[in-house]
Amino acid sequence: MSTSETSRFVRLRVEVVLEIDDPEELTRAAVGRIDADEFLPEDERVHARSAVHDDSAEALAYLVEPFDLVKEVPGIELVQASWSSEEVDFDPDAQEWDLDEEDEADTDDEEPE
């Protein structure tokens, strides 16, 4: 396919596992972000503060901004972004957490030459 026939849109999927070693600091930072949002209606602000106090994953979601990940990449424009966070049980030795798992599956399917 020539460049003119290929899509100009690319979906970038990123999976990140973070360890929260200071939940209070994370919550304070999230509340600070919420309080600084001048466009957030007060009723939503109250709900958001409660959510980040109850759930570290929710606090993290208030602090991670997908635009910040790509804003300085030349030649692109962010068209759409979504993200979510959830608390998970993490075992770095478990096969389900092997980030190269998809790459290995691709190579397993290849036939030897």
Structure description:
This protein has helices spanning 23-36, 42-54, 56-63, 66-70, 101-108. The protein has 113 residues and is mainly alpha-helical. The chain has one domain (18-108). Helix 1 runs antiparallel to helix 2. It is flat and about 50 Å long. The relative contact order is 0.12. The mean pLDDT is 85.
Order of H and E elements = HHHHH
What is the strand tally?
A: 0
What summary fits the major beta sheet? none
Shape call: flat
Whole-number total of structural domains:
1
Taking pLDDT < 50 over at least 5 consecutive residues as the criterion, the unreliable ranges are none
Number of helices: 5
* Mean pLDDT over the full residue set: 85
Distance separating the two termini: 26 Å
What's the helical proportion of residues? 40-55%
Strand content: under 5%
The helix-and-strand class reads mainly alpha
What is Rg?
19 Å
List keywords for this structure.
5 helices; mainly alpha; 113 residues
Short summary:
This protein is mainly alpha-helical and 113 residues long.
Write the layout of secondary structure elements.
Elements: H1 23-36, H2 42-54, H3 56-63, H4 66-70, H5 101-108
Helix pairs in contact: 1-2, 1-3, 2-3
